[in-house]
Write a structure and sequence with these properties.
It is built from nine helices and eight strands. The chain is of the alpha/beta class. It has an eight-stranded mixed beta sheet, with helices on both faces. Helix 2 runs parallel beside helix 9 and helix 3 packs across helix 4.
Length: 306
């Protein structure tokens, strides 16, 4: 479990800025004798980024590397857990991350600030957007050539992953990792229509939808897609269990319609007998995700010698 970011209650912007400055200062002091002021860039690598890593002060992600030759071009997949925006326990996604790694991908399993930490929108979305940038940097620094960056999110994590995939600068925050373009999005029983799910999202936004419709629109993936904010070339896979009674299938159907209207390639697969609690399991999600990624971004055939 990660430690809380602060025991006081400064604004979320000042809390993130202070924490980031302190974290980078400590990193730079360890490598430079302690006299250099922190900057907004990540420290130079000294070893591959693998295992559990802090991608922002107080926030961790697990980096899983495939058994492939260094220098190979590999898909980079960021996994984003659900938790009703109140928690972000990534351990449930570990088996799925391992399955993706076994299929030859770099998998990064992240957490993010939640309402249980006192965070409100847009901080959780900023965290996920930064984790996506970290995932690409982790692949590079581990000796791989980053291929397509694909975000995989379940439930509330699907909502935040969709926001990161439609980020045109709104969620840049203060992130020390180089910019990266999201090319793929996989939503696992995600929430994409905030108006239809408003009762469960007031704590995330900190106000009701009627009190701040602008913030709610900024945090609505469907509105962002309709506004042309999706990453150029984005491709989307939506998986939703037919037996899901927590997040209605209508959420994925509405997102599919919005993506189709915006001419964004999308595939919706309705999974028979799959519930909300099983949609993210490796047994259910690994095969369709792997097949979709391999279909969308096929590896070039090895060149023949001689």
């Amino acid at each position: 479990m990660r430690t809380p970011r602060s025991t006081t209650t400064p604004s979320r912007g000042s809390r993130r800025g202070v924490a980031l400055a302190l974290g980078l200062a400590a990193t730079l002091a360890a490598g430079c004798g302690g006299s250099q002021a922190p900057t907004a860039s990540a420290p130079a690598p000294s070893a591959p980024l693998t295992g559990t890593q802090a991608y922002l002060p107080g926030l961790e992600a697990d980096v899983l590397l495939p058994d492939r030759a260094r220098g190979a071009a590999v898909p980079v997949v960021l996994l984003v857990p659900g938790g009703s925006w109140q928690s972000a326990d990534r351990t449930g996604l570990t088996p799925l991350a391992e399955a993706l790694t076994e299929a030859g991908m770099v998998a990064v399993n992240t957490t993010y600030a939640t309402t249980g930490d006192g965070a409100v929108f847009p901080e959780p979305a900023q965290d996920v957007a930064c984790a996506a940038r970290f995932a690409v940097a982790a692949a590079e620094r581990s000796g791989f050539e980053p291929g397509p960056l694909v975000l995989v999110g379940h439930s509330a994590g699907g909502h935040l992953a969709a926001l990161a995939a439609t980020d045109d600068g709104d969620f840049a925050g203060t992130c020390p990792w180089p910019p990266a373009r999201v090319e793929g999005l996989v939503g696992l029983a995600g929430v994409y229509d905030t108006a239809a799910f408003a009762g469960a999202m007031v704590e995330l936004f900190g106000v009701s939808r009627s009190e701040d419709p602008t913030a709610w629109a900024a945090g609505d993936p469907i509105a962002r897609v309709a506004g042309g904010r999706a990453a150029p070339g984005l491709r989307v896979l939506l998986l939703h269990g037919e037996a899901d009674i927590t997040v209605p299938l209508a959420q994925s159907r509405a997102f599919e319609a919005a993506l189709t209207e915006a001419d964004i390639p999308v595939q919706l697969s309705v999974l028979p007998a799959v519930s909300h609690a099983t949609a993210y399991t490796a047994e259910v999600a690994a095969a369709p995700i792997i097949a979709w990624i391999q279909q969308q971004w096929p590896e070039p055939a090895p060149s023949s010698s001689g």
